[in-house]
From TrEMBL, chain A:
<keyword id="KW-0816">Tricarboxylic acid cycle</keyword>
<dbReference type="GO" id="GO:0033765">
    <property type="term" value="F:steroid dehydrogenase activity, acting on the CH-CH group of donors"/>
</dbReference>
<feature type="binding site">
    <location>
        <position position="353"/>
    </location>
    <ligand>
        <name>substrate</name>
    </ligand>
</feature>
<dbReference type="Pfam" id="PF00890">
    <property type="entry name" value="FAD_binding_2"/>
</dbReference>
<feature type="binding site">
    <location>
        <position position="254"/>
    </location>
    <ligand>
        <name>substrate</name>
    </ligand>
</feature>
<dbReference type="GO" id="GO:0008177">
    <property type="term" value="F:succinate dehydrogenase (quinone) activity"/>
</dbReference>
<keyword id="KW-0274">FAD</keyword>
<dbReference type="InterPro" id="IPR003953">
    <property type="entry name" value="FAD-dep_OxRdtase_2_FAD-bd"/>
</dbReference>
<feature type="binding site">
    <location>
        <position position="394"/>
    </location>
    <ligand>
        <name>substrate</name>
    </ligand>
</feature>
UniProtKB/TrEMBL annotation, chain B:
<keyword id="KW-0411">Iron-sulfur</keyword>
<dbReference type="GO" id="GO:0022904">
    <property type="term" value="P:respiratory electron transport chain"/>
</dbReference>
<dbReference type="InterPro" id="IPR017896">
    <property type="entry name" value="4Fe4S_Fe-S-bd"/>
</dbReference>
<dbReference type="Pfam" id="PF13237">
    <property type="entry name" value="Fer4_10"/>
</dbReference>
<dbReference type="GO" id="GO:0006099">
    <property type="term" value="P:tricarboxylic acid cycle"/>
</dbReference>
<keyword id="KW-0560">Oxidoreductase</keyword>
<keyword id="KW-0001">2Fe-2S</keyword>
<comment type="pathway">
    <text>Carbohydrate metabolism; tricarboxylic acid cycle.</text>
</comment>
<feature type="domain" description="2Fe-2S ferredoxin-type">
    <location>
        <begin position="36"/>
        <end position="119"/>
    </location>
</feature>
Length: 584, 259
């Protein structure tokens, strides 16, 4: 075991982690731990853009953006946080431009903007051009630009270091963060990073679904690490299903395709979104569009012999426009489907895309241990966190925004805390839990295989807690997950070595996914209403009287060692916007 | 009723709609294995599997790892050609495993998979990426401006100026180009195509003021002049970047000092 000592440790090197690192490195001795290489993070897969009311191409302002974000989140958004997001969006985009990000340009040379789902002029009058973009690889450009600036600032990275445990130590009756424990993939060695401040920026949990836009590596590692240490997870039942994933594969096709004029059609060629969202049509919010697609499919208007998908039609757009604005996604269609998007519509289906819920934080990125109390020295930002700016459904382009605004805030807040706080003494044997976990998995001889359990988990999640849910389907999922968690105890790996043991890594990741899937299902079962991404067919309406509140899920361990999930609730921060019926 | 489940494998044996002419096939993957914990020698190992030829090589590697041999080791993440983790040498050519479909590889013959060349192999298909990233860092891959006061709004850039370096912004640092370059194989000191591509991205950015410095770095004995214009890099690039052209543009800029 090696011990390292830093002021600030950042877990994850995607957009939020690197944006935080740029700030933290200027102010404190900082280390960034990532289980990949920085430029491999899934921020790079984001396509369509980053929202900011620059008003470069038409009238716009941050107040409209705030409203759209709150309405898009079906009023579960904390309104103070949404206001910060929309206000600071403008500087966040300008910061990136100054760092070198090559945005597409208007004829005047300013940053160009395009339409995106749920973003509107004057509180829902019509779509507005708010998404700042770089072709359809905006996330790639953000990830590259942030990495470039990390190189410039001399940010210290520990690549292929996998954080497995969060150290919390009680000092004078207050639980504080003392550091993290990481597993070095190259050698199998355990490292303890003692730090005054720790920032989680380790991304989402999408791999518990089968059809997903998420990378193989998005396994909720940060959420699981803090949850196992007794900290809550907020709003985990809210997961976003992006309307346009490549049929069966789940690979994302940006909403920017519809922003550029693309149209969704059923097997009759009908532009069905006109029925469901007369004003915003194909650019309604993602939860609305995904439900509409599955309604078409269930009512027999899906495409193909099995009627199990619909089409994204770009054929009416000029090829030059597709080449200039959507080069990557048109290439995906050619590579993976053998389809020419100039002339043929692209088969699509909703794909599991984004966790709205996560580690609860306040607007400074400080992690909460209950509804109000912060854990000194612990921060989170990006998809791993729940501020909550996305509420029950995130708007497209607000996640690239979130990582920049709250990544920066967390980086500054953590480094400022590091400047005044002192290191906390490590617990006696800080790596004991991780060593035990790794050794158990490495030496286990049970007959369960990681791949089987993961496959069953993903199929169960797709079948039972996806776009449409009922009490019955969620209960099925809860029971299945419990069974899989039992079986996981008998899992063994074939690779018993220390060097680059990705077999072992996948087993650890599966453990995280199982824990988080259970939290999601249990949270969903208790929310007897429909709101944003959480749609209950048995409770099809939003219920503001009983459920205008955030779910807070805690892991409890009984005296006999049995684990359970305790649900609590947290009020939503409402400032100026009264909940209204949501129409697009 | 729950969300319709779209299960690719649940109809095992039934041909997929629209692809009735492409049933599952048996393919052999001949993979270069190396694990210094077990042996100092690398060996070829064959794996056979039933697979839909429209699947990716990465899907095949996963099937092998998940169902046959958990010790098979490779890097991967996004699985659709964006993250740059899974560059490898497939049938003798550098490609991303996640962007290469089995049907495009003549699966009647064994498909060979080996690590990219010129970088130290650490285990199976995993190589040491550090020299590659060091060369990248050496070209100062970040915007450098002379202005002392930051503008309050964005810097202006015409669409034409933006277009000038568009191609080289696509780079995902997968190392497929650099590790396909015979000069790099022979001499690991050469910066390699990827570093030059990333220098190009800034040299030709109208907002940047450090083009001269980067050109001097690349004027070094291990810089652009080592390029022998074999076009391996352009062929290898999974992002379709005209790598050799970018290198030529940097060479031209070194001669004319205009960029």
């Amino acid at each position: 075991m090696k011990i390292h000592k830093y002021d600030t440790v950042i877990v994850g090197a995607g957009g939020a982690g690197m944006r935080a690192a740029i700030e933290a490195t200027k102010r404190s001795r900082t280390a960034v731990l990532t289980k990949l290489y920085p430029t491999r993070s899934h921020t790079g897969a984001a396509q369509g853009g980053m929202a900011a009311a620059l008003a470069n191409v038409e009238e716009d302002n941050w107040e409209w953006h705030t409203f759209d974000t709150i309405k898009g989140g079906d009023y579960l958004v904390d309104q103070d946080a949404a206001e910060i997001l929309a206000k600071e969006a403008i500087d966040a985009v300008l910061d990136l431009e100054k760092m070198g990000l090559p945005f597409n340009r208007t004829p005047d040379g300013t940053i160009d903007q395009r339409r995106f789902g749920g973003h509107s002029r004057n509180h829902g009058e019509a779509p507005v051009r708010r998404s700042c973009y770089a072709a359809d690889r905006t996330g790639h450009m953000i990830l590259q630009t942030l990495y470039q600036n990390c190189v410039k600032e001399g940010v210290e990275f520990f690549n292929e270091f996998y954080v497995l445990d969060q150290l919390l130590v009680e000092v004078d009756g207050v639980k504080k963060s003392a550091g993290v424990v990481a597993y070095e993939l190259a050698t199998g060695e355990i490292h303890v990073f003692q730090a005054k401040a720790v920032i989680y920026a380790s991304g989402g949990t999408g791999k518990f679904f089968k059809v997903t836009s998420n990378a193989h590596t998005l396994t909720g590692d940060g959420q699981a690490a803090v949850y196992r240490r007794g900290l809550p997870l907020e709003d985990m039942e809210f997961f976003q299903f992006h309307p346009t994933g490549i049929w069966r594969m789940g690979i994302l096709l940006t909403e920017g395709a519809r922003g550029e004029g693309g149209i969704l059609r059923n097997k009759d060629g009908e532009r069905f979104m006109e029925k469901y969202a007369p004003v915003m049509k194909d650019l309604a919010s993602r939860d609305v569009v995904s439900r509409s697609i599955y309604t078409e499919i269930r009512e027999g208007r899906g495409c193909g012999p099995e009627g199990d998908h619909v089409y994204l039609d770009l054929t009416h757009l000029p090829p030059e426009q597709l080449d200039a604005k959507l080069p990557d996604i048109t290439e995906f269609a050619r590579t993976y489907l053998g389809i020419e998007p100039y002339t043929d519509p692209i088969p699509i289906q909703p794909t599991a895309h984004y966790a709205m819920g996560g580690i609860p934080t306040n607007v400074q990125g400080e992690v909460l241990r209950d509804n109000t109390t912060v854990v000194p020295g612990l921060y989170a930002a990006g998809e791993v966190a729940c501020v909550s700016v996305h509420g029950a459904n995130r708007l497209g382009t607000n996640s690239l925004l979130d990582i920049n605004v709250f990544g920066k805030r967390a980086g500054i807040a953590a480094a400022e805390y590091s400047a005044t706080a002192s290191h906390i003494e490590l617990p006696e044997d800080p790596s004991s839990q991780v060593v035990a976990q790794i050794e158990r998995l490495r030496t286990a001889t049970g007959n369960e295989r990681v791949a089987d359990i993961r496959r069953e988990l993903q199929e169960c999640m797709d079948a039972n807690v996806m776009v449409f849910r009922t009490e019955q389907t969620i209960k099925t999922a809860v029971e299945k997950i419990a069974e899989l968690r039992e079986r996981y105890l008998n899992v063994s790996v074939q690779d018993k070595g220390k060097r680059y043991n990705t077999d072992l890594l996948e087993a650890v990741e599966l453990g995280n996914l199982l824990d988080l899937a259970e939290v999601m299902a249990v949270s969903a079962l208790a929310r007897k209403e429909s709101r944003g991404g959480h749609y209950r067919e048995d409770y099809p309406n939003r219920d503001d009287v009983n459920f205008m509140r955030h779910t807070m899920a805690y892991r409890e361990v009984g005296d006999d060692g049995t684990e359970s999930i305790r649900l609590d609730y947290k009020p939503v921060v409402q400032t100026r916007y009264q909940p209204m019926e949501r129409k697009y | 009723m729950a969300t319709p489940t779209l299960d690719k494998t649940d109809a095992a044996g039934t041909p997929e709609p629209g692809f009735a002419d492409s049933p599952y096939i048996t393919a052999t993957f001949r993979i270069r294995r190396f694990n210094p914990e077990i042996s100092a020698e690398a060996v070829w190992e064959d794996f056979q599997l039933e697979i839909d030829p429209k699947e990716r090589v990465l899907d095949a590697l996963h099937k092998i790892k998940w169902d046959q041999d958990g010790t098979l080791t490779f890097r991967r993440s996004c699985a659709h050609g964006i993250c740059g983790s899974d560059a490898m040498r497939i049938n003798g050519k550098n490609r991303l495993a996640c962007k290469t479909l089995i049907k495009d590889l003549n699966p009647a013959k064994p498909i060979t998979v080996e690590p990219i060349k010129g970088l130290t192999v650490l285990k199976d298909l995993v190589v040491d990426m550090e020299p590659f990233f060091q060369a990248y860092r050496d070209v100062m891959p970040f915007l450098i401006t002379k202005e002392t006061n930051e503008p309050t709004r964005e810097r202006l850039q015409t669409a034409e100026d933006r277009e000038r370096f568009d191609d080289t912004t696509k780079c995902i640092l997968c190392a497929a180009c650099t590790s396909s370059c015979p000069v790099f194989w022979n001499d690991g000191q050469y910066f390699g195509p990827a570093a030059i591509v990333n220098a190009h991205r800034f040299i030709f950015d109208s907002r940047d003021d450090a083009g001269e410095q980067r050109l001097e770095i690349l004027n070094d004995k291990d810089g652009v002049w080592r390029c022998r214009t074999t076009f391996n890099c352009t062929d290898a690039c999974p992002r379709g970047i005209e790598v050799t052209k970018a290198i030529q543009e940097v060479k031209r800029a070194l001669i004319t000092r205009r960029f």
